[in-house]
Amino acid sequence: MIATVQKIERTAHYADAMAVATRLQPEEPVFCFSASQLLAKAETFLKGFPGTVSYAVKSNPAREVLATLAKAGLRHWDVASVHEMVAVRDVSPKAQFHYHNPVKSSREITDAYHTYGCRRFAVDCREELQKIATVAGQDRRVEIAVRFVLPRERTSSAHDFSTKFGAPEHIAIDLLKQVVDRGYVPVLTFHPGSQSREPQTYVRHIEAAARIAQAAGVAIGKLNVGGGFPADYPHSKGGPLEIFFHTIAHAAARC
C-alpha cells in the first residue's frame, strides 16, 4: 500500500497510515489516500456481490475517492443530499442516484428529480411519500424504497445505526401498499449497522423483508441490503466479505 498524504497543498508518499503517523506525528487532521487499495476493494464488491453495488457517498465524499470509484466502474451512488449528487456528477456524468435519506425537503426532492434525474427515493413515513408524489406525479419509473427497522437486539455491529431511521414492520406494510397504489416501483431497504461482523444479521433483515412484502401482498422490485460491511483494522478483523456475499445471496434466493 502506498498512502498519499495531503497537508496544506503539500503531497508526500508513505508506505501506509502507520508510517504517516510515525513520521509526521500530526496534531491536525491529514488526508491519507491509497488509490490501489480502493480500486482493489471496489473490484471485490463489483465482482463478488450478488447484485448492484452502490457507494454511500457520506462515508467519504473526497473527490479523490469518488473519482477512483468512478474509474473502477461504479455507476450507482447512495446519496444523502443534493450536495453529494453535485460532487458525484462532477466525476461521473452518467451517475445514477439512490436518494436513501428518508428525510428530505420538497426543494431537495425537486432538485434531485428534475436536475439530477434521481428516480429512487427512500421513505419511512407517509408524509415523506406524499412529498415525493407531489414532485414525481405518476412517474412509474420512480422507485420508492420503504426503509424498515427491526426491534433492537444484541448487535455485533460496532456502531448500531440500524434504528436511526426506519418504520416498524406494521407501518412498512402499509407504506408498501401505498407505494403500489400510487403506481411506483416498490423497494424495501434496511441498514444492519456499521462494521457489522455477523452475516446472520443480514439474514434476519432479509427474512423480515419477505414477511413485510407477503403481508402487504406486494412483489417488491428490489431489496437494498444497506451497508455495514466490515473493514479490517489492526485490532478488529471483519472476516472475508465473500462469506457475507454468499449468505446474502442464499437468504435472498430462499426468501
The computed structural class is alpha/beta
Alpha carbon gyration radius: 19 Å
Number of β-strand runs: 12
Which percent range fits the helix content? Answer: 40-55%
* Beta content: 15-25%
| Strand and helix order | EEHEHEHEHEHEHEEHEEHEH
Main β sheet profile: 7 strands, parallel
Q: What topology, given as strand order, has the largest sheet?
A: 4-5-6-7-8-10-12
> Which regions are unreliable across 5 or more consecutive residues at pLDDT < 50?
none
Number of H/I helices: 9
- Distance from first to last alpha carbon: 40 Å
- Shape estimate: globular
List keywords for this structure.
seven-stranded parallel β-sheet; three-stranded antiparallel β-sheet; 9 helices
General description of the model:
It is built from 9 helices and 12 strands. It is an alpha/beta fold and 255 residues long. Strand 7, helix 6 and strand 8 form a beta-alpha-beta unit.
List the helices and strands and how they pair.
Blueprint: E1 3-7, E2 10-14, H1 17-24, E3 31-33, H2 35-48, E4 54-56, H3 63-72, E5 76-79, H4 82-91, E6 96-99, H5 106-115, E7 120-123, H6 126-136, E8 143-147, E9 157-159, H7 169-181, E10 185-189, E11 194-196, H8 200-216, E12 222-224, H9 241-254
What's a concise summary of this model?
By secondary structure, this protein is of the alpha/beta class.
